[in-house]
Design a protein that fits this description.
heterodimer, A: mainly alpha, 2 helices, elongated, B: 143 residues, mainly alpha
Chain lengths: 52, 143
């Protein structure tokens, strides 16, 4: 029984630790695309603020 | 339109957080600071003071680390964070930031300069209200 509890605990710890994996690195193309989105949404934010 | 502005700046900030993760940019990045600052300014306008304060503080921390020395954006950031504290009636928290913003602008801009005058006026208002010499409604604040 004790061994079973320990195994379950290990499994739990492993699953939680797995959730802390760093986000995958963006490719150059993904970075470019995301930067374009950031710039476009920033411009849209200013435009909407100016209009409001 | 201001809600549309907030939505757009939220999207921009999400993208900036993904582009400049802490693991790769431990000091942050100017674009991330700008994203935080823009959204904070809109939240401030919407009266979401607690959210605005947190974002202005995060932007200020990044700008201090990235610019290291005095920078106009850092001074403006300090002033707007102080403005949020002032709106929350946290004058004791606002005053040091107004003071720091004034000191930085005096170092940045030699001689007479409108930004120095604005910072001086804000600090004066803050101190006068704190001392009870003036009511908040009679004080004209500058951005």
């Amino acid at each position: 029984m004790t061994r079973f509890v320990i195994l379950v605990l290990f499994a739990l710890i492993a699953s939680v630790a797995g959730g802390d994996e760093p986000p995958k690195k963006l490719t150059a193309d993904e970075q470019k695309e995301l930067e374009a989105k950031r710039a476009a949404r920033t411009a849209a934010g200013f435009k909407a603020a100016d209009a409001g | 339109m201001i809600r549309e502005s907030a939505r757009a700046f939220e999207d921009a900030l999400t993208a900036a957080r993904e582009l400049y993760p802490k693991a790769e940019f431990p000091d942050g990045h100017t674009n991330l600071a700008a994203g935080l600052f823009n959204l904070a300014a809109v939240y401030r306008f919407q009266g979401r003071l607690a959210d605005a304060g947190l974002l202005f503080q995060e932007a200020l921390d990044i700008r201090k680390r990235v610019f290291k020395n005095d920078h106009p954006d850092t001074a403006t950031n300090m002033s707007l964070l102080a403005d949020v504290y002032k709106a929350q009636k946290r004058l004791a928290d606002a005053e040091p930031h107004f003071k720091d913003a004034l000191a930085m602008r005096r170092r940045l801009f030699k001689g007479d300069h409108p930004d120095v005058a604005k910072a001086l006026n804000n600090l004066r208002c803050c101190m006068w209200i704190k001392s009870g010499r003036q009511t908040p409604s009679r004080c004209t604040w500058n951005r």
